[in-house]
Amino acid sequence: MYRRKFWDGDVGLTPYMTALREAIDGDDVTSETDFQDDDDYIFLHYEVTIKEDFEMQDATSFVDGVIERVHERTDQLVLRHQDGLTRLFDRGSFEADLSYSLGRNQRVALVMVDIDHFKKVNDTLGHRVGDEVLRTVAQVILDQCDGKHRVGYRYGGEELALMVTGNDVARALKFAEMIRGAVECLRFKTNDLVVSVSVGVAEAGEDRDNDSLVKKADGGLYRAKREGRNRVVDATCGIPGDTA
Ligand code: GH3
Ligand code: MG
Ligand code: MG
């Protein structure tokens, strides 16, 4: 139960509640069972499902752990920040989300997208056109996002990323190919400007840490560059489940 009148959090009650609901929705053992908002009180009820056969004391500490995790994740989600130019989430959000996702018992894949010869666009047409290209390519990635299993980030500069989790990982290569194909078809106000992206895709294996997965996806990206750009390289060499 949260009361607007007494809420003195830095972020405001509405964004906090949105994040809390997203954290509950995103955790595989929690589910929201009631939500009411009468403009004064917000009432939120959620359940924790216990699948194992615990002793009472263990069940209690399991639930305590889940509640702590949900609130930690809420704090992360509240602090997520969108990059001003692209509207993708920024690098800090990327690191927090990736480490959260890797810490869960689920499949995680990373699609790393780098604009080809972008420096040349800036050098020949100016930074304003470069910015427009960056924003438009980012929109292509945003079009593939669903906010839950597919989330887009600006990793840095003209390097963008799509994090794919859960069942959608089986289609990670397809998302990557869709992004590549859509970028190739983009048309800009500047006549004759054609842009392409190189893409590396990798799925997290045994070592579930940010550095390993980024390194693996980067490996695919560099190979895509070396092999001629405007292509997708699967660094995992056949993401299991990609049969559809
Ligand atoms: P490659 O195909 O190997 O990726 O070549 P590239 O020219 O894309 O790569 P390089 O790393 O040489 O250049 C990246 C350029 O991206 C340099 C930098 O000025 C530009 N850049 C990074 N962020 C922005 C931005 O926000 N706006 C604009 N206009 N340019 C940016
Ligand atoms: Mg580039
Ligand atoms: Mg780059």
Question: How does this model look, in words?
Answer:
The protein is α+β, with helices and mostly antiparallel strands and 244 residues long. The protein has 2 domains: 2-78; 91-234, Reverse transcriptase/Diguanylate cyclase domain (Alpha-Beta Plaits). It is 43% helix and 20% strand. It has 7 helices and 8 strands. The chain has helices spanning 13-26, 56-79, 91-103, 118-125, 127-143, 172-184, 210-226; strands at 2-3, 30-37, 41-48, 108-115, 150-156, 159-165, 197-203, 232-234. A 5-stranded mixed sheet has the order 5-6-4-7-8, with helices on both faces. Strands 1-3-2 form a 3-stranded antiparallel sheet, with helices on one face. Strand 7 (197-203), helix 7 and strand 8 form a beta-alpha-beta unit. The longest helix is centred in the N-terminal third of the chain and has 24 residues, at 56-79. The termini are far apart. The model has no long low-confidence stretch (mean pLDDT 94). The structure holds 3'-deoxy-guanosine-5'-triphosphate (GH3) and magnesium ion (MG) (2 copies). One magnesium ion binds at residues 114-116, 118, 158.
User: Which fold name corresponds to the CATH topology of the largest domain?
Assistant: Alpha-Beta Plaits
What CATH first level of the largest domain would be assigned?
Answer: Alpha Beta
Total separate domains: 2
Shape assignment = globular
Rg calculated over all Cα atoms = 21 Å
Strand content: 15-25%
Largest sheet: 5 strands, mixed
Mean pLDDT: 94
Task: Bin the helical content.
Answer: 40-55%
Low-confidence runs: none
Q: Count the helices. How many? A: 7
Instruction: Tell me the structural class.
Output: alpha+beta
Q: Which series of helices and strands comes N to C?
A: EHEEHHEHHEEHEHE
Strand order of the largest sheet: 5-6-4-7-8
* CATH homologous superfamily annotation of the largest domain: Reverse transcriptase/Diguanylate cyclase domain
User: Total strand count, please?
Assistant: 8
What ligands does this structure carry?
Answer: 3'-deoxy-guanosine-5'-triphosphate, magnesium ion
Q: CA-to-CA gap between the ends?
A: 44 Å
